[in-house]
C-alpha cells in the first residue's frame, strides 16, 4: 500500500505554499498575532476564496468541494510550515467535522454553506484535556428549550468563532450532547486567554443560562459522545499534519543556518555533531509525515482504524515536531532564543501543540489498550 499525495493534492499544497509565502510571511504572522482577533481576516478570506480551504470537507451540494481529510493534510502541512495565524484548525477540523458527523441534514444546510465560504468560523467547546466523556457544562430542560450553564477553558479560537459547538452533560439522560450556540448568544461570555503560543488563540467560555432551542441540539447519525470522539480523532490528524509542516520548517531553517554560519573558519554544517542533528531531524520529519498521511487515509477510507491511527500520529508527530524545534534552537545558538527569530516562534508552537487534543502519553495509553495491555 502506498500513501502519497496525488496530483491534485500536490497542486493544492503548492498553491497553499505560494499563497502563504506571499500573504503570510514571518512579519505578517507577527503582526496578526498581536491583534485582538489573533489572525488576519484578509488572509483567512484569501485562503477561503482563492484555495477553498474552508470548503474542503463540505459536500458540493452545500457549497463545498466535497473532498476529505487526505486533501486537508497537505494544506495543514503548509499552515504549520508558515506558522500562519488563521482559524483553519478550529473551523474545519473541529467545527465543520462536528456538523458533518453529528448534525442533521437541516442543521448542516443551515450552517455549512457559511463555513464553506469563509463568511463564518466555528469551533468546538469541550474538555480541555480532550476527554470526550465529560463536560463542565450542564444542559437542562427549561420550558421548550435547553438551558446551558458552565465554563469551558482553552477553547480554540473561542473568542471569535461565529458558531460554538458546545459539549454538555444532560443529567436527565446521563449522556453527553452537542449544542449549536452562536457566538453572540445572550448569556455567553468569551474571554481571550494569554497563551504560550501567541500564533494560536485560546479562550475561556462562560455560559450563564444560555437558551438553546431544541432544533439546535445536534441530531445526526452519531450521538453526542461518539460524535465528539470522532471529531477529536479527525482534529488530531489535522494537527499532526500541521506539526509535520512545522518540523520541516525547523529542519530547513537549521540546514540553511548550518550552511552559512561559519565558526573556526568553516561552516558549522561541516561538523559531525551538527550533521547528525540535522540527519536525525530529517528522520523525524519523514517518519512523522508517514504517520500523519496514514492517519489521514484512515480518516477517509478506514474509519475502524482511525482511533488508533490518530493516536499514533498525534503522539509521534507531537514529539517529532518538538524535537525538531528544540534542535533548531540549539543549532542556531543564542540567536535562536531571541523573540525576534522564527525559531523562537516555532518552539512555542511546537510546545503548545504537544498538549492540544491530548498529550502524547494519553495517546500511548490508547494504543496500549488496543494492544490489550
Percent range for β-strand residues:
15-25%
CATH topology description of the largest domain: Butyryl-CoA Dehydrogenase, subunit A, domain 3
Overall pLDDT score: 93
- Low-confidence segments, given as residue ranges, are none
Q: Compute the CA-based radius of gyration.
A: 21 Å
How many DSSP helices?
A: 11
Tally of separate domains: 3
Q: Helices and strands: which structural class?
A: alpha+beta
Mass-distribution shape: globular
The helix content is 40-55%
CATH architecture of the largest domain: Up-down Bundle
What's the CATH class label of the largest domain?
Answer: Mainly Alpha
Structure description:
The protein is of the alpha+beta class. The chain folds into three domains: 7-121, Acyl-CoA dehydrogenase/oxidase, N-terminal domain (Butyryl-Coa Dehydrogenase, subunit A, domain 1, Orthogonal Bundle), CATH 1.10.540.10; 123-216, Butyryl-CoA Dehydrogenase, subunit A, domain 2 (Beta Barrel); 224-370, Butyryl-CoA Dehydrogenase, subunit A, domain 3, CATH 1.20.140.10. It has eleven helices and nine strands. The strands form two sheets. Strands 1, 2, 3, 4, 5, 6 and 7 form a seven-stranded mixed beta sheet that branches. Helix 1 (7-23) packs parallel to helix 4 (69-82). The longest helix is centred in the middle third of the chain and has 37 residues, at 224-260.
